[in-house]
Specification:
It is a single chain. This protein has nine helices and no strands. It has helices at residues 2-10, 25-28, 31-44, 57-71, 79-185, 202-322, 327-336, 367-373, 389-392. The longest helix has 121 residues, at 202-322. With 393 residues, the chain is mostly helical. The two termini are 81 Å apart. The protein binds 2-acetamido-2-deoxy-beta-D-glucopyranose (NAG) (6 copies). The site of one 2-acetamido-2-deoxy-beta-D-glucopyranose (NAG) has 4 residues, from loops. Keywords: Signal. Residues 1-18 form the signal peptide.
């Protein structure tokens, strides 16, 4: 038995710290009791829970064995001394060893509980991101509608310009023909015009010639006026078409600007959804990774705490047995007893399921985007090439 105790003590390598066990000269008279007390003293200094990777349970079980062996041989020890030792050890167990286990249980339980907050933070990151995206998304229909209205106006102006150009074409033809006929008339007549008719008197000749020349003069003047009139009309038409052309160009510029804003807003939305997604996934995998890690160490500590608690309960039981009448019987009962550790069970959290990522189906530059956003755009007011950031990337 001394050998067992000695080797047990040799395994204790923790730094020493005084335990308040009564110094009693009487105890030193009983070497086995003295070494038991020393062992207890050492065990108390294990500082249960200070080294989380190692369980104190094996030492506690060793102590149990020592106590049990002692219990079998208490007849030589004075009853009063035995009671003193029992009280000391009970006090140590109750005041020091058990509270340490309870404290550590609270610590590991709160370590686990912190992860609820961590996972909730990930959902918060996602929620904030989705809210931000939602605001961006809300602005899009207005931009789409304004752009479409602009292109429709552009299309109307384009139609009007086409009509103007068609009219201009016919004005050109009319002007060309009126001015050509004016040009044909505007010349000195052939000599033959002036030849006399058979038997014509001089007076009749001159009267006739006067009429001929007056008619010719009138025709020349009318044709010239007509030419000037159609040429004037042509110039009016030309300047009308020029103005309309400017209007179309101006309209197209402002539509392109609106499209640019629309494309950029859609890029922004897509980027913001993607960013939210990657932030959320990073947060989740970080949290999951560290939760797995912590859960594993906590599980190991939890199981150690259960062992330690049961060992302490067992020690308490044996100590009670040592001062009873039928020591061996009571000690056997202690071995069969079931010690509950229900209050030391750690409640693990259930990881909330990972939400699927949302990304924008209609990214600018894709056919989906063209089909959705530019569906109502007239063919004669075509949209510009996308120049927003996500198209250029
Ligand atoms: C417990 O150990 C400390 C340090 O070794 C010692 O000072 C103290 O006297 C011991 N107590 C008993 C009751 O053995
Ligand atoms: C009890 O003590 C006596 C006398 O010291 C010794 O002979 C005996 O072997 C001890 N019994 C046990 C079970 O340790
Ligand atoms: C998202 O917005 C809604 C309504 O504006 C708000 O009730 C909710 O708390 C917001 N969520 C987050 C995570 O900010
Ligand atoms: C051309 O003639 C028409 C009819 O005679 C007249 O109404 C119009 O004002 C004239 N246009 C010009 C440009 O002289
Ligand atoms: C967002 O992610 C999707 C899918 O990975 C990708 O097709 C799209 O280009 C991304 N958007 C931006 C703005 O980077
Ligand atoms: C989308 O429309 C733009 C503008 O017309 C065009 O340049 C681009 O090629 C289209 N993209 C696809 C994938 O159809």
């Amino acid at each position: 038995m001394n050998v067992v105790l000695a080797s047990f003590l040799l395994t204790l390598v923790w730094p020493t710290r005084c335990l308040l066990l009564r110094q009693d000269a009487q105890r030193d008279l009983h070497p086995k009791l003295a070494s038991l007390l020393a062992a207890l003293n050492q065990t108390a200094r294990l500082k249960l829970g200070s080294d989380r990777s190692r369980s104190a349970a094996p030492y506690l079980r060793n102590l149990e064995a020592t106590l049990l062996a002692m219990a079998q041989n208490t007849s030589q020890i004075p009853a009063q001394l035995l009671h003193g030792v029992k009280d000391d050890v009970m006090t140590m167990v109750a005041n020091e060893l058990k509270p340490r286990i309870l404290t550590e249980h609270r610590q590991i339980q709160s370590q686990i509980a912190e992860f609820s907050g961590l996972f909730a933070k990930c959902e918060g990151v996602r929620g904030d991101g989705l809210n931000e995206s939602y605001l961006k998304q809300e602005a899009l229909p207005v931009l789409i509608a304004n752009h479409e209205a602009c292109r429709k106006q552009e299309s109307l102006l384009q139609d009007r310009l086409e009509a103007c150009r068609t009219a201009l074409q016919s004005s050109r033809l009319v002007d060309a023909s009126t001015c050509e006929s004016a040009r044909l008339l505007d010349r000195i007549p052939e000599m033959s015009v002036c030849s006399t008719l058979n038997g014509e008197s001089a007076e009749a000749y001159h009267r006739r010639m006067l009429e001929v020349f007056q008619d010719r003069l009138k025709s020349i003047r009318i044709r010239r006026l007509l030419c000037e009139n159609t040429t004037g009309a042509l110039h009016l038409q030309e300047s009308a078409c020029d103005t309309q052309d400017q209007e179309v160009k101006h309209q197209r510029q402002s539509c392109n600007l609106m499209q640019r804003q629309l494309d950029s807003a859609a890029c922004d939305l897509s980027l913001s959804m993607n960013t939210t997604c990657s932030k959320y996934q990073a947060c989740r995998s970080q949290a999951t990774l560290s939760y797995d890690l912590v859960r594993n160490t906590v599980k190991a500590r939890e199981s150690n705490l259960h062992d330690e608690w049961k060992a302490l309960q067992h020690i308490e039981c044996i100590l009670e047995a040592m001062v009873g009448s039928d020591i061996m019987r009571a000690a056997q009962d202690c071995g069969r007893a079931i010690y509950s550790v229900a209050h030391l069970v750690v409640n693990y959290i259930t990881m909330p399921s990972c939400q699927p990522c949302e990304d924008l189906a209609e990214v600018p530059g894709t056919s989906d985007y063209n089909a959705t956003v530019f569906a109502g755009i007239p063919a004669n007011a075509p949209v510009a090439e996308c120049a927003a950031s996500c198209c250029l990337a």
